């Protein structure tokens, strides 16, 4: 019996397993994998994980089952695995929009579930994952799931009712931040900066600002004020951004992200 089984090894599945192995949340000989692209499994097999020949083989031989397929693939996958589930299985689902209710309707009322929303920076050890324990999964089982993600960054427990809303905060937000950076970097190259220099300056400022927000003990308002010299450049920039409805653009993005999660879960 393997401790962790994984079905679906794509953009996020592979880094989750990589991180869990290098962070020693689970040992490679305790991991069994099934994906549609065998070449993606190769590096994981080289360090000692096992490959299954089918979804059923994974389910039949693991305790924790990480489902990292697209939400749209679950309607086909869940009925396939249901007959092979045991009462001790713990399903860890990272599918955006897929609620515990959806999973219990498909797999049975007593299914132990952990919902998780990770993000891709976990591939560099800087992930942030939001998790929620669903009864009857136990605290120990939840702690195992927290470790799987937590060794690749940080892991936060959140209420299950906020799993869709959290996607805009951590799951999708790396792409939002990449897009904002892209806008800054494109303008910087028009000013004449080479791309690498601009990226170091912009990203370094983002990292610094993030540290200030998390660790300085200063409120967001006060941090903003400390940068805004009276009559200076920052207030001119912020005023123009506000006049261009920055808040509306970002809130519309968050709302559309959340709305899509609810649609995926129908
Ligand atoms: N990409 C991201 O940043 C994040 C993704 N997620 C969630 O993670 C899940 C996976 O997303 P991605 O990795 O981006 O998608 P992806 O499309 O890169 O990977 C999914 C993989 O699952 C495979 N697959 C589908 N059905 C399968 C089956 N029956 N057996 C074995 N393999 C199967 C596909 O061939 C594909 O390789 C989604 O549910 C998504 O909502 C959550 C947080 C962040
Ligand atoms: O775009 C998506 O649907 C997934 C969920 C969060 C990040 N990627």
TrEMBL record:
Pathway: Amino-acid biosynthesis; L-proline biosynthesis; L-proline from L-glutamate 5-semialdehyde: step 1/1. Residues 4-97 form the Pyrroline-5-carboxylate reductase catalytic N-terminal domain. It is found in: Cytoplasm. The keyword Nucleotide-binding does not apply. Residues 161-264 form the Pyrroline-5-carboxylate reductase dimerisation domain. It catalyses: L-proline + NAD(+) = (S)-1-pyrroline-5-carboxylate + NADH + 2 H(+); L-proline + NADP(+) = (S)-1-pyrroline-5-carboxylate + NADPH + 2 H(+). InterPro entries: 6-PGluconate_DH-like_C_sf (IPR008927), NAD(P)-bd_dom_sf (IPR036291), P5C_Rdtase_cat_N (IPR028939), P5CR-like_CS (IPR053790), P5CR_dimer (IPR029036), Pyrroline-COOH_reductase (IPR000304). Its EC number is 1.5.1.2. Keywords: Amino-acid biosynthesis, Cytoplasm, NADP, Oxidoreductase, Proline biosynthesis. Its main location: cytoplasm. PROSITE patterns: P5CR. The keyword RNA-binding does not apply. It comes from the Bacteria. Signal peptide: none annotated. Pfam families: F420_oxidored (PF03807), P5CR_dimer (PF14748). Belongs to the pyrroline-5-carboxylate reductase family. Catalyzes the reduction of 1-pyrroline-5-carboxylate (PCA) to L-proline. This is Pyrroline-5-carboxylate reductase.
